[in-house]
Design a protein that fits this description.
9 strands; five-stranded antiparallel beta sheet; four-stranded parallel beta sheet; Rossmann fold; alpha/beta; 205 residues; Quinone Oxidoreductase, Chain A, domain 1
């Protein structure tokens, strides 16, 4: 069982979530296994570091498991106190575990930095990724219109059920030309979950 540092809390893991980053942390993708992988979890606090003041034993929290010598794919893991959040009333363990990495990253991109507003048009590349699908959900709650890209028509079809307004198959399609099929006014924001390979095309849109 890991031991929490002064600024960490130790939780009994009730649920965790899968994402690409979770397999990188801990070295799984590089052949190492110094400590368990996994970057987000929800659980109950069973031990608290000496400098932690906000939380107490038994609190139900969710958080990113980053910067500690443990991972969320285990029975117990440590979380930095500033990475932890109380679980909202009514949320299940599973729902809570899926929030800390992908939904917070999407929120920062859309709201903190992107200032997305109702009726804005946002382009989300690789929309079926964890952050992409989280960004879709947040965008629709705000009332924005969403254009999504994917290499899979099947994935785009499924995401239409979550409110995606217009889907584009990439890289075959000319991104700027396809966006003009949906709007002649351009887009307000790009959330690029794919990386540099589509950056220039997204900026032209």
């Amino acid at each position: 069982m890991p031991k929490p540092a002064d600024d960490e809390i130790l939780i009994k893991v009730r649920a965790t979530a899968l994402n690409r980053g979770g397999f990188i942390v801990g070295g799984v993708m590089h052949g190492a296994s110094a400590y368990p992988s996994g970057t987000e979890a929800a659980g109950e606090i069973i031990q608290i570091g000496s400098r932690v003041q906000k939380y107490k034993l038994g609190d139900k929290i969710m958080g990113r498991v980053i910067g500690t010598n443990s991972g969320s794919y285990s029975e117990y893991c440590t979380i930095k106190d500033y990475e932890a959040m109380f679980i909202p009333v009514g949320f299940s363990w599973e729902e809570s575990a899926a929030i800390p990495v992908s939904f917070l990253a999407a929120y920062d991109a859309l709201i903190t930095y992107g200032k997305l507003s109702k009726d804005d048009i946002v382009l989300i590349t690789s929309i079926s990724s964890a952050i992409g699908s989280s960004a879709l959900i947040i965008s629709k709650i705000i009332g924005a219109k969403v254009i999504g890209t994917s290499t899979s028509d099947l994935k785009l079809e499924k995401l239409r059920n979550y409110g995606m307004d217009f889907g584009i198959i990439t890289p075959e399609a000319n991104l700027a030309d396809k966006i003009k099929e949906f709007t002649d006014d351009g887009i307000n924001l790009v959330v690029n979950c794919l990386g540099g390979s589509i950056f220039n095309d997204a900026m032209m849109a």
